Amino acid sequence: MGCMSTLYTPLPIQPEALAQLRERDDAGRACVPYVDEEGGSPLRCCLRPIRPGERVALVAYAPLRRWAARTGARPGAYDEQGPVFIHAEPCEGPAGGADGRYPFARAGALRAFRRYDARGHIVGGRLLEVPEDSTAGFDAAFEEAFADPEVTQVHVRAVEYGCFQFVVHRPEAA
Known about the structure:
- The chain is an alpha+beta fold.
- About 20% of the residues lie in helices and about 30% in strands.
- The protein contains four helices and nine strands.
- It has a four-stranded antiparallel sheet with strand order 7-6-8-9, covered by helices on one side. It has a three-stranded antiparallel sheet with strand order 1-4-5, with no helix packed on it.
- The longest helix is centred in the C-terminal third of the chain and has 13 residues, at about 135-145.
- The chain is globular and about 40 Å long.
- The two termini are about 30 Å apart.
- The model has no long low-confidence stretch (mean pLDDT about 90).
């Protein structure tokens, strides 16, 4: 159940973006680190849950912004921002590709798969209730998304809070 390797590569927030977010987030606010005594929330730098006692920050992140700056895309109103948790200091990033599984793929959780084209515009989406075999469920949702030749990337978001989870780029467009 969910232990086979993923067909697609979930990508964390890139180190350059993390360095900027640790100073000032995408809403222009200063980063305010704190120690999370309980843990459990998803870290977008490591693609794993926060461990109790880790020093983290909750920051506003606009996932299309830096990609658009690199590619010349113009996402316009789709350049949205939302809250994400990151380590307060630089970290190693994901260890071992999240053990060959998709991160934050708890059975029963709801995930939105937002599909974007080369301009950074939404060209569709899908709601997924994560099945017991989460790897197969995620693989099928990405297969469906990338069957559309316009789709260059898919953003996975938690439905409950709208939080960005991770991005997957079209394999040949990464």
